[in-house]
Structure formats: C-alpha cells, structure tokens
Design goal:
The chain is built from 11 helices and 17 strands. The chain is α/β, with parallel strands linked by helices and 356 residues long. Bound molecules: zinc ion (ZN) (2 copies).
C-alpha cells in the first residue's frame, strides 16, 4: 500500500509498505477512507517532535472502515465506519478511568499514531486499543463531517468543556486556525452572551465573519481595547488561547478579567513567561495541556443532530498519490487553505489485492 512516511528531518515521502497486520488482541486494522493533514505533522517534518520515529507513516486525523479486529475487541466489527482517535489509551489505568486519557500510562498511550507508530496518511492503519480508539460513525454523518472528530474537534470540545463557560460570559478565543475554528464551534454550543475571535490573518477573519453569524472578530493589536468594550467586568470571563504565537500567551491573560479562566490549548515553540507580579490580584485560573480525546461519541452525536458541522473547514481535496502537493499548500498556507481532505489513491498499489 502507499504510505506517506517520515524519512528524516525535513523529508516525507510516499512509499510502498505492506498492509499492517493485527499485532495485539486489542488491535484493529482500518481501511482509511479519508485523512487530513495537521500542523503537528509539520512539526514532525521540521524535527520539532523528538519522539517521532523516522520510518513511521505520518497522519493522525482519519476516518475509515474496519477491516479486521483482534479477538478482544468488542465495540467494533469489520465493515463498521469509524473515526480514529489521535490518542491511544488503555481505558483502564488511573488517568484513563478519570477521563485524563492524554496521560494514559500504557507504554503505547498518548499520541502514538503517526508519531511513534504508523499513522493514517496511508491506505490502511493499525489502531491499538481499538475499543477506545475507534468510534462508530452514525449513518447520517459523512466521512467529511466526521474527519476532525478524533483530533482537532476533540481538542476544541475538550477546551470548551474545561473552560467553565456560562451563558452570561464574554468568551475570547485567540486564533482562528483549524483548531481555533473547531474550538469556536464547541464554545458556541455553550451559548455564551458574547464570543470574540482574535486573529491576525484577514483571510481567516473574513472566514469567521462569513460562517459564524453573531461572532465578533478583532486583530491582536486592537484586542485588549475591543474586549474591554465588549465585556462588563474589565475583561473576558473566559479566554481560550489556541494561537500559540509569540505574544499570544501574554495577550490571553491580559485580556482576562479578574478571576477568569484562561485555557491554554496552544502548543508553543518556546517557553512562555508567567509574570506573577504583573498579574498579582487578578486571581486567574490557568488550565493547560493536551487534549483528553474521550468525548468522540458525544461529538459524533452532536454532528448527527446537526449541531456541529466542520465541513466548511475543508477547503482542498487531494488523493493520497498527490499528498506531497497537498502538504505544500498546507505548509505555505497558500490558496486560502484551512484543512485538506486526503482520499485513497486513485490508483491503488498492486499488492493490496492479495490481502483483502
Ligand atoms: Zn493533529
Ligand atoms: Zn490508560
């Protein structure tokens, strides 16, 4: 099969690999029907994910059809349409039992797919702990609608869930990239009084204005002033920082009112300064960390009910044999790209016929 592979720092290549087999009794093998490219894939390409293993197939956002399951898999069967979770988690350790699946203590736990083990920018993928890592896609939900459930939509949903948003709140979201837009949709479900999106790209501000009626937009330069004008207690009641830019952490806590919740979703390239003397008396609550992607069934239900729809984020579509071109567009943020859907290769490789 074809698999987009991390060869070495700076180099991904589409190469031939054998179709994956079941290794553990809890594994499933999934035929990938749609995958996507995430900024984290670029982090691997640029060598900023030290635990990424050269030679692995990249890609951790995908949906597909179950081909095979190990004898201990109970929640899915061959033929089922499924979303694949970016996180691998055992479901049994202390952290998993408390919903902190990002901190699963299994050796395979955490972000493994497309990082430490073969991922989904390929024709097939092996998914460990399939009962936890796969969720059934309802019949009325398309592959494109379900594509982001296991990664950026899970992240947005988790961020909105932990941010203690009430209907009286002014919520500031910093960053309108793909994860910021998923976060926005999940924040909208909480029906806060006012949502402000801060974004530096005029193209993305236009996208928010076109797709999300009633959401206010502002550039970083005018953000503090604008938040003051549009909130009642000297700042936003809740801030979600999804940008991870040079100054966006500072912007996040500066725009927060006293006793606000500031949720840091962003992954920073550099350490950030927490200037406690400057924020003394603001009594902020910071929430940080990686997504606990354990709400995928609920997200799929919300999509099925028409309450979340991220298909407008898919601005480009490519088949797997043209994935290098898709990466070029995604990496250079050209042509108004937000997200790219990657479908199976138009011409499948020959060795497939003997395995399925
Ligand atoms: Zn990702
Ligand atoms: Zn666990």
């Amino acid at each position: 099969m074809l698999a987009y592979t991390y060869v070495e720092k700076g180099q991904f290549e589409l190469i031939e690999k054998p179709v994956p087999e079941l290794i553990d009794s809890h594994d499933a093998v999934v035929r990938v029907t749609l995958s996507s490219i995430c900024t984290s894939d670029l982090h691997i390409k640029h060598g900023s994910v030290p635990r990424a293993v050269p030679g692995i197939t990249v890609g951790h956002e995908m949906v597909g059809v179950v081909e095979k399951v190990g004898p201990d898999v109970v929640s899915v069967s061959p033929g089922d349409r499924v979303t694949v979770n970016v996180e691998t988690f055992c479901g049994e350790c202390f952290f998993c039992r408390h919903g902190y699946v990002n901190n699963c203590t299994s050796p395979e736990g955490g972000w493994a797919l497309g990082c430490r083990i073969d991922g989904g920018q390929a024709e097939y993928v092996r998914v460990p702990f399939a009962d936890q890592g796969l969720n059934l896609i309802p019949d009325n939900v398309s592959d494109e609608q379900a594509l982001f459930v296991g990664d950026i939509l899970a992240t947005g949903f988790w961020a909105a869930r932990i941010s203690e948003i009430s209907e009286d709140d002014t919520v500031l979201i910093i960053g309108a990239g793909p994860t910021g837009l998923c976060t926005l949709q999940c924040v909208m479900l909480k029906k806060p009084k006012c949502i402000i999106v801060c974004e530096k790209s005029s193209e993305r501000i236009r996208f928010v204005n076109e797709h999300y009626a009633g959401v206010l937009t502002v550039t970083p330069e005018k953000c503090r002033e604008f938040v003051l004008e549009n909130s009642r207690h000297g700042g936003a009641d809740v801030v979600l920082e999804v940008a991870g830019g040079e100054d966006t952490f500072r912007l996040a806590w500066e725009c927060a009112r006293p006793n606000a919740v500031v949720t840091i979703v962003a992954l920073y390239a550099h350490p950030q300064l927490l200037p406690l003397p400057d924020m003394y008396g603001k009594n902020l609550t910071f929430k940080t960390g990686g997504v606990d992607g354990c709400d995928c069934a609920e997200i799929l239900r919300l999509i099925s009910e028409g309450r979340i729809d991220t298909t407008s984020l898919i601005t480009h579509r490519f088949s797997l044999d043209r994935i290098a071109e898709a990466y070029r567009i995604f990496e250079t943020k050209s042509d108004g790209v937000i997200k790219i859907a990657v479908s199976p290769p138009r011409k499948s490789s020959e060795n497939l016929s003997s395995t399925v």
